[in-house]
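[INFO] parsing input record for Probable membrane transporter protein
[DEBUG] input buffer:
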Amino acid sequence: MTHFVLFAFFGAIAQLVDGTLGMAFGVTSTTLLLIAGTSPATASASVHLAEIGTSLVSGFSHWKFRNVDWKIVFRLAVPGGVGAFIGATVLSNLSTEVAEPWMAGVLLTLGAYIFIRFTLRPPRTDKAQWSTPRRRHLGPLGLFAGFVDATGGGGWGPVATPALLGSGRVEPRKVIGSVDTSEFVVSVAASAGFLLALGDEQLNWVTVAGLLFGGALAAPLAAWLVSRVPTRLLGSLVGGIVILTNSRTLLTSYEVAGPTRAVVYVVLSAIWAAAVAYSVRGLRLDRARAENATPEHAGTGPA
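[DEBUG] output buffer:
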């Protein structure tokens, strides 16, 4: 029972982050399982089985809050499922140690781009013309994100969310809602690949049930939060999460000394905190300008 409650708690925290920022359920949950001594393939399989339920509840919640663009979901989900199935099969038979630093470098680059763009030059939501990215762009993105997600125990959100946010063509809350909703298909495909390659003997079903239960409980709250968080602040938060998460992976992969790693984490955290504060200040200034402009505009016109 204690084991179930513990992983239900971590599932709730992971889903709250994932549902709000569009990423990190798999990264958080898989890390906990690996620390507990679970093999990479079994950890990823357990997380993806739990994500079938959490992504279903999360997708429904995002749909209720109108955070979903169904064209994006369909164009991402099918190639994402193919990539996830292939990735699950590969991970079940091969080590991913060599690929991890490369993947982390790609994600770190995407995170830095989003972080800088939304912190310093956020898109103007009052003038932006939102449109759905084309199938030829979403197909390869879904295939790659699905493969990374299955082989890394997480990655669908960290790959797909920054790429779509970086295009500047899709409203941020709909990016997160659509990515979370399409993750259901990715989770089903990855789970099928793992079960075919590994069987179910290596899985701890109490762990799966705990992650699923906690994540499902937190999904509606996360969907509500994403519709309330401003675009500028959301971009800073997403970028900071991606940078910190993948910096840790790179530093660990290259066996950087503990004290040096601590300094890097402190510096990155300080920059992240300053960027969030800068975004909050910018939001307040924008609101003040909007409030001041309304009376001016109301007072103009023929006498």
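[INFO] The radius of gyration is 20 Å.
[INFO] shutting down worker
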